[in-house]
Amino acid sequence: MRHYLLVGADGRPYHSTIPGTVGGHRVSKIYGRLDCPSALRTIAAGGYVRHRVFFADVPTAVAAGYRPCAACLPDAYRQWKARR
């Protein structure tokens, strides 16, 4: 059985048998889709991977203090920005 390292709502990592549905960047506290073009470009250029984290779902990422990515989640980002 495969195990995945996810981050919980408390910001702590835990092992799961179910993969995460969204990825994030630990330093910038941004979450987004796993196929985010911006994240994939950065990974291809050799960056980002060391600080990459994964969440079970969007509510968990938000509870952990992460904000939506402007590139792959523009509507969620605009809503987040409007609340600031």
UniProtKB/TrEMBL annotation:
Entry annotated with the keyword rRNA-binding: no
GO biological process: DNA repair; regulation of DNA-templated transcription
GO molecular function: DNA binding; methyltransferase activity; zinc ion binding
Ada DNA repair metal-binding domain mapped to chain residues: 24-75
Top-level taxon of the source organism: Bacteria
InterPro entries: Ada-like_dom_sf, Ada_DNA_repair_Zn-bd
Family matches, as Pfam families: Ada_Zn_binding (PF02805)
Transmembrane segments: none
Coiled coil: none
Keywords, comma-separated and alphabetical: Activator
Name of the protein: Metal-binding protein
Species this protein is from: Mycolicibacterium porcinum
Lineage, broadest ranks: Bacteria, Bacillati, Actinomycetota, Actinomycetes, Mycobacteriales
